[in-house]
Amino acid sequence: MWKPSHLCYSAKESKLDLWHRKLGHMNTNGLTRLINAEVVRGIPELEKQTDTVCGGCSQGKQVKVQHKQISEIRSKEILELVHMDLMGPITPYSIAGKKYIFVLVDDFFRYTWVDFLRNKSDALESFRILALQLKQEKGGIVQIKSDHG
To answer: For the whole prediction, is pTM greater than 0.70?
Structure first.
């Protein structure tokens, strides 16, 4: 049975949460000191604690996990191993109407070649041109690694 002593939870937001967001996600202790010192005019009397957790504050306190650094380079010379990726379609399109990005990265020097493409089917021709250019300049690509995209 319902008893009048039970609390009724509503979708109403507490004033403390509202002022927490208005004042740049200030913590509750700082808000209390601000009110007691009467530094800011117009802040009403607020409750001391809140049960809600601010999504923006919790997201800002998350720690990003770093990738493990590779202690050694797998290749011994330039163009021995080339990583290849095709990304897209990207939005918004470029001014020239390009919507795909074709990237080649040399594993030894981490030198990067980037080509912007209109269609995904243009990737093979772009790779052919880059491979011929690298063959003339540096001696050619030995091995390619991709994500099978």
So the answer is: no
